[in-house]
Amino acid sequence: MQNTAGIHHISAMVNDAQRNIDFYAGVLGLRLVKKTINFDRPEVYHLYFGNETGQPGTVITFFPWAKQLKGRIGTGQVGVISYIIPKGSAHFWENRLRKFGVEFTSSNRFGETYLKFNDPDGLQLELTEREEGPTNTWDFGRVQAENAIKGFGGAVLFSAQPHKTTDVLENILGLECMGQEKEFLRFKSEGPLGNTIDIHLNPSVRGLMGAGTVHHIAWRAKDDEDHQRWRSLLLEKGYYPTEILDRNYFKALYFHEGGGILFEIATDPPGFSADEPVTGLGKKLMLPSWLESEREKLEETLPHVEVRVLEGDK
Ligand code: ZN
Questions:
Q1: CATH number at residue 299
Q2: Cα(9) to centroid of ligand 1, in Å?
Q3: Which H, E and C letters describe the chain, residue by residue?
Q4: What is the 172 CA–ligand 1 centroid distance (Å)?
Q5: What is the pTM of this model?
Q6: pLDDT tens-digit profile of 46-60?
Q7: Which domain holds residue 288?
C-alpha cells in the first residue's frame, strides 16, 4: 500500500515579489529558502519559503508575476492553507497580525481554533495551535522559535467532486478518513506536518486560476522508487500523470484529480541544500545548469528583491 507522509509543498500565484517576501518572511517569519526562477518560464521568479532547512511539509512556493490576472478562489483548487503554530502562541499571532494591519477572524473546526486571514494577494491562510511538528528554529524579525510557524497543518480542498477527491486521498495517497463535521470531511496522513486535509463539501463558486490562488498541492514521496511506484499506481487507476520531471530540489510528477485540483507528487530528496549550503539558503539567485549561461541577462530582467525586517519589527 502506497501512502504519503502528507503535504510536500504548496505553490501559488501572486503579483508582486517584494510584497510576497515582506509578508511570508517579514510578517509570518518564514525563511526564504530558495530564490530561483520558474523552470518553465525563466523571466518569472520562483520563491520558496519554509522552516530553517525548508523541510518537506513546511514549504510554500510562489510565482510572482505583475501581469498575472487576478484569479478567484473556488472549486478545483486548494481553498485554504493551514499552518501549525506552537501551543500557547495564538495570542502572539493575534497581536502580530494586528500590528501589521492584517485583519483576521477566528473559527472552529474539529475541536480546533483557527485564526483566519488573507495574504496581500488574497490567498486564504489560517493558523492553528498544535503540539505536533518539529520546532522551527528560524529566527526573524520578532518571530522566534517559541512562536514560529512550524509548517503546514494541512489544507482545505475546494473539490468540484468531493467523492472523487475522497477516492484519490484514500486509494491513491493512502490517507485515512477521520469523519465529517458540518460541511467538512477530514483526512489524516502519518507525517508530523501537513497531515490534516479537509474537503469542503459545498464551496460556493467555481475557481479561476490566477494571482491570489493556489496553483497546485504536492504530496511527499520518500525517494525515487516510491515516486515510480506512484506513477505506476496512477496509470493503473486510470489517471494521466506527467512524466517524472527534475525540479533540482525534488523530482515531480503532476496529475489532475477528479475534483479538478492539480496534484503533484514530489520526492523528499535531495532538498534545498542540493545547490547551496543550509547557512546561505535563499541569498543568491539559483539557476538550473541549463540556464546558468543566461544568468547576467536574467539578473538584469528580474526585479530586485530582498528579505528585510519590516518597520514594525525594528
Ligand atoms: Zn510543485
A1: 3.10.180.10
A2: 6
A3: CCCCCCEEEEEEEECCHHHHHHHHHHHCCCEEEEEEEECCEEEEEEEEEECCCCCCCCEEEEEECCCCCECECCECEEEEEEEEECCCCHHHHHHHHHHCCCCEEEEEECCEEEEEEECCCCCEEEEEECCCCCCCCCCECCECCCCCCCEEEEEEEECCCHHHHHHHHHHCCCCEEEEEECCEEEEECCCCCCCEEEEECCCCCECECCECEEEEEEEEECCHHHHHHHHHHHHHCCCCCCCCEECCCCEEEEEECCCCCEEEEEECCCCHHHCCCHHHCCCCEECCHHHHHHHHHHHHHCCCCCCCCCHHHC
A4: 18
A5: 0.98
A6: 999 999 999 999 999
A7: 7-313
